[in-house]
Amino acid sequence: MSTYFIAFAIGVLFWGTLSDKIGRRLAMLSGIVIYLSGNLGLYFAQDFNIVLLARLIQAFGASSGSVITQTIMREAYIGTTRSKVFAKTGAAMSLAPALGPLIGGCAQTFFGYRSVFSTLILIAILILLYTGFYLPETRKTVVKSTKIGMLKILIRIMTDKTVLTYGLLVSGINGILFSYYAEAPFIFIEHFKMTSIQYGLIGIVIALSTIAGAMVINYYVLKFSKTFLVKKGLFIALLGTVGLIIAAVSNSMTGMIIATFFTFWGLNITLPITLELALVGYENIIGTASGLFSFLYYLVISFFTYLMSLLHSGSIISLPIYVATLVILMLIAYSIEVRSAIK
Q1: Following DSSP, what letter does each residue of 39-106 receive, concatenated?
Q2: Using one digit for the tens of pLDDT, what is the confidence trace for 197-211?
Q3: In order of start, what are the domains of the chain with their CATH numbers?
């Protein structure tokens, strides 16, 4: 997983910058082709070293979908429409953790482990064809590296308190998600003795929370300010973490599941708006800026996830306390940013 993250982080930086030079469409198609080649490598691999190399290629190619999609949404939509698009995209993406293990498990059970890779190959081909036929070019200007160097953009991002604050929020929310997926098997399978099928249903809870977050944004984005929605999302998440702590102390599996829903519901109200607003003012260099921003927050996500592994103590209380700490940190950082912006 760590090597996958490294390749993915390097990939978002590469594809974001490349999309400024050759266009979103061509960069996306190139990334999908590399993703497809990684899946082919996994299918035909005969030893572990080849598997590892193929996974790196797969991650590098797949990262194009993350950074270029965000770039396209940032430049193709504005205002409340962009908020709704980010929310809907997040809701659709939330189905992957729920459906992925189910599809992969069925494929492996009935057709063997290589069928998992053949399924990925088929998906990559379908995505490549769909993108080739339907993805338009959204880049409006050509960004030349001689005019605006990557180092200058990096310095601008690293000295922009607003971008850093939103970066902390994106990193914190995703860090919580990956930490949850790292700890959840211990909590629900080892501690509460769930079966694998029962545990698989937990992914549906996360998916439903993301869909619920998207519904809140779609309904309330015209009624309240985005700052208000970000704060309220964090407050809901904080209440959810309190529920997680209470459920862990009282050893309640049902309580943990319900509190998990409210925690991620709040976070998924905050996340789409955060991603939308993070790079406002960087429109003329949005591809490179998106790549650098994504690269940096993936590094922080990796750190947050690694920190959770260090804090694992064999107790189900570790995750709730860690999640609550990160949510409080995000609330404080965002409150400071809002106050400084008002001044």
Answers
A1: HHHHHH--SHHHHHHHHHHHHHHHHHHHHHHHHHHHHH--HHHHHHHHHHHHHHHTHHHHHHHHHHHH
A2: 777 778 788 888 988
A3: 2-133+149-342 (1.20.1250.20)
